[in-house]
Design a protein that fits this description.
The chain is elongated and about 65 Å long. The chain has 137 residues and is an alpha+beta fold. The protein starts with a helix and ends in an 11-residue tail after the last helix. The protein contains five helices and five strands, in the order αααββββαβα. The longest helix is centred in the last third of the chain and has 17 residues. The strands form two sheets. The protein has a three-stranded antiparallel beta sheet. A two-stranded antiparallel ribbon has the order 3-4. The protein has a single domain, classed as Arc Repressor Mutant, subunit A. The structure holds zinc ion. The site of zinc ion has 8 residues, from loops.
Length: 137
Amino acid sequence: MALIWKVDEVVNEIALWPIKKFYPTLIAKRTGLPIDTVFARLLELTNDHKLCVKWELRCPGDNCARTLLVLDEEAIKLRDVFCQYCGQDFCEDDYGDVYDYIYPAFEVCREYKEYLRQSSLQTKKKQPPMKGKKFLN
Ligand SMILES: [Zn+2]
């Protein structure tokens, strides 16, 4: 369990960054945890309304991989998606499992972001810099 909480720590940290969204790979890199573990935990945080998840459909074209659609739900019937950048045209039949091209992107919920911002401001205000004494006992 403790390892999983590293995910929460990193999420709380990047919540204060000026970024709109992030991918599980970023968290995996920073925590050193396997991507599956990270992803499972991030989904749990969405249930907690700390994060929300969007599904990005990326173009399967060679060297393209641009985001073509952003979906609120992963389960969607996709037909005839056309990439305006490289001209790649694909549908489920041609490309087998279309889910191979769907990637989760996470956003920190506005309320949670605000909460973290407030609490980090308060910690800064309340705690005077430690002088001398290192341990409180
Ligand atoms: Zn493309």
